[in-house]
């Protein structure tokens, strides 16, 4: 009997801790209940709202500082614009320019509804460079003090040859198509069971409807200020932009975002790196063989980021074959 009381005490303590954790995860959305519970009003007002501007360059861009975290409420008081995917309320930012490479995290917070974000990146001349959407921004279950959300992490490279126009502006909006969709979240009972490592017999995972209003969190990190300094890996872009593609559609209030090229061509483009500024000694054949083996192994495992990092590292050390080995390995993996 004594053993049962001890076990019960431990279980109750664990459950209380887990419940407290779950309550903490939804806390960030409490302040915005009226926005997150008003899907019908949001859709109705979106249909009648007047757009703010006739071109992307006229949007209201807020300055965004490095090492800054902020939560943005997008609702009926926010400006709207006709994006290629339809009219949407938006939040627009000018990125810090006097910084190192930036790591940016964008998340749409989940409560009863979700503003499912799409991120449009623009260069200093307001020309689109890439669109970051559902391939990068995906569902993340609540963890610690972070509640349920859809989240994407990407970088702004201030030096890499693949970013000649230096991305300067960022626009967060949602698409017309996603407004009729839902995101499946993890049920509280399943979250509880997972934290306790027990079987879940609770409710089904809820489907969260998307809304024209919502709450978005933004976290900007200057990667040059990290402990690794300039030795961190710099991911390249998801899309290759055709410089000859027209940006502005003849129809008023419409913006045309260039599409990505074929996968193989895009991956090959990402692998390209600028030639070293100073000549380096030729790499030893044994070292060359080691890098080739590691690059091929990473591609075979599907870890393209690691393979590209190895290519850059090998070329800095004097390799003349790493890039071709990478391209050949990618082509073989796609057969």
Shape: globular
Distance between the termini: 65 Å
Query: What portion of residues is helical?
Result: 25-40%
What Rg do the Cα atoms give? 24 Å
State mean pLDDT (0 to 100 scale): 76
The fraction of residues assigned to DSSP E strands is 15-25%
Order of helices and strands: HHHEEEEEEEEEEEEHEEHHHH
Topology:
Layout: H1 2-30, H2 33-36, H3 39-48, E1 61-63, E2 68-74, E3 80-83, E4 86-89, E5 91-94, E6 102-109, E7 118-122, E8 128-132, E9 138-140, E10 149-156, E11 169-173, E12 182-184, H4 188-196, E13 207-209, E14 214-222, H5 263-271, H6 285-300, H7 304-316, H8 322-333
Parallel strand pairs: 1-5
Antiparallel strand pairs: 2-14, 3-4, 5-11, 6-10, 6-14, 7-8, 7-11, 9-10, 12-13
Helix pairs in contact: 1-4, 5-8, 6-7, 6-8
Task: Provide a brief overview of the structure.
The chain has helices spanning 2-30, 33-36, 39-48, 188-196, 263-271, 285-300, 304-316, 322-333, and strands spanning 61-63, 68-74, 80-83, 86-89, 91-94, 102-109, 118-122, 128-132, 138-140, 149-156, 169-173, 182-184, 207-209, 214-222.
Report on this structure.
With 335 residues, the chain is α+β, with helices and mostly antiparallel strands. The chain has 2 domains: 24-231, no CATH class; 263-333, no CATH class. 30% of the residues lie in helices and 21% in strands. The protein has 8 helices and 14 strands. The chain has helices spanning 2-30, 33-36, 39-48, 188-196, 263-271, 285-300, 304-316, 322-333, and strands spanning 61-63, 68-74, 80-83, 86-89, 91-94, 102-109, 118-122, 128-132, 138-140, 149-156, 169-173, 182-184, 207-209, 214-222. A 5-stranded mixed sheet has the order 1-5-11-7-8, with no helix packed on it. Strands 2-14-6-10-9 form a 5-stranded antiparallel sheet, with no helix packed on it. A hairpin with an 8-residue loop joins strand 9 and strand 10. It starts with a helix and ends with a helix. Residues 1-27, 227-254 and 258-269 have low confidence and may be disordered.
């Amino acid at each position: 009997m004594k053993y049962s009381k001890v076990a019960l005490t431990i279980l109750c303590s664990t459950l209380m801790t887990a419940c407290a954790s779950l309550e903490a995860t939804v806390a960030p959305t409490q302040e915005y209940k009226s926005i997150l519970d008003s899907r019908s009003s949001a859709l109705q007002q979106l249909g009648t709202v007047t757009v703010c501007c006739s071109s992307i360059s006229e949007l209201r861009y807020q300055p965004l500082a490095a090492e800054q975290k902020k939560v943005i409420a997008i609702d009926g008081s926010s400006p709207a614009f006709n994006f290629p995917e339809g009219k949407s309320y938006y939040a627009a930012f000018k990125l810090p320019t006097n910084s190192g490479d930036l790591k940016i995290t964008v998340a749409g917070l989940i409560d009863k509804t979700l503003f499912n974000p799409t991120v449009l990146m623009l260069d200093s001349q307001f020309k689109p460079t890439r669109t970051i959407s559902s391939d990068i921004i995906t569902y993340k279950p609540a963890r610690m003090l972070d509640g349920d959300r859809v989240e994407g992490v990407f970088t702004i490279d201030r030096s890499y040859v693949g970013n000649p126009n230096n991305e300067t502006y960022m626009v967060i909006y949602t698409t017309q198509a996603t407004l009729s969709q839902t995101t499946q979240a993890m049920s509280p009972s399943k979250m509880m069971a997972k934290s306790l490592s027990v079987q879940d017999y609770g409710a089904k995972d809820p489907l969260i409807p998307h809304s024209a209003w919502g709450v978005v969190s933004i976290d900007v990190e200057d990667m040059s200020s990290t402990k690794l300094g300039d030795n961190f890996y710099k991911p390249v872009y998801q899309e290759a932009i055709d410089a000859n593609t027209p940006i502005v559609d003849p129809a008023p209030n419409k913006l045309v975002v260039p599409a990505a090229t074929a996968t193989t061509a895009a991956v090959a483009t990402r692998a390209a790196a600028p030639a070293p500024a100073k000549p380096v000694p030729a790499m030893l054949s044994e070292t060359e063989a080691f890098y080739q083996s590691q690059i091929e192994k990473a591609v075979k495992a599907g870890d393209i980021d690691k393979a590209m990092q190895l290519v850059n590292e090998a070329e800095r050390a004097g390799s003349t074959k790493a890039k071709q080995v990478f391209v050949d390995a990618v082509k073989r993996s796609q057969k």
